[in-house]
Model the fold of this input.
Amino acid sequence: MRGWILATFLLLACGSSSPGGTGPGRGTDGGSGSSSGGASNPPPDAFVLATLGPASHGTCPPAATTTSTVFALGTATGGHPDTVQNGASAGGGVASVKCTVHPNGAGFDVTLSAEVSGPLGGSLNIGPDTVPMSGGQGVGVSVAGGAGAVGYSQTPCTLTYVYNGNPVPASPPIAAGRIWGHASCINASSTIPTGPTGFCDLEADFVFEQCEQ
Done:
C-alpha cells in the first residue's frame, strides 16, 4: 500500500512540472510569444500635419486669408518628426493608424490612414494608389478635422518627398513598410454636404512606418 502511494505521488509531481506546456505568453511549441517563437512586430505609427489655406485661383471660405491646421498627429521636429503609434492616446482621443506600403515593380502600392477619435479628432487618408520611387504621382487625399466638422478632399493630389518644404532627410524616402512625404492638393473641395463651396489649398506632411508590406 505504501509503495502504491509513493508511485502515485511521483507520477503527479512529474506531470505538473513537464516543460513545454501551453499557457499565457507561450506558443504551442513551448516558446514565448507567437507560435513561430519570434517577437511580434511593433504597431504602425504615423506623423501628420495637414493644413488648409486659400487656393491661388479660387475662394476658400474656412481659410480666406490665412492657413490653418486641420489635422495633426505627432510633433514636427527639425529631424525625424515624433510619431504616434496605433492605439496610443493623442489629442484627448485615441489614435488609429493603418497603412500598407507594398513593393510593386518600380513603385509601391500605398494605402495610408491616420485617425484620432474624440471632440478634437480628425483624420488623413491617402490612396489606395500606386506611386513611383521618384514621386510626382497623383494620389487621392482626404482630410477631416474638428471631429468631422471640416472635411476636404481631392483626386488627384501631387505626392512629393519633402518635409517642411525641404527634401526628406531619409534615403530612400519610401521603402517596403514605410513612407515619408508630402501631399499637395490645390483644388481641394469640401466633403461636408452642407459645407462651403469653392476650392482650398490642402497641404500635408506625413510619415507612416511599421506598415504592412
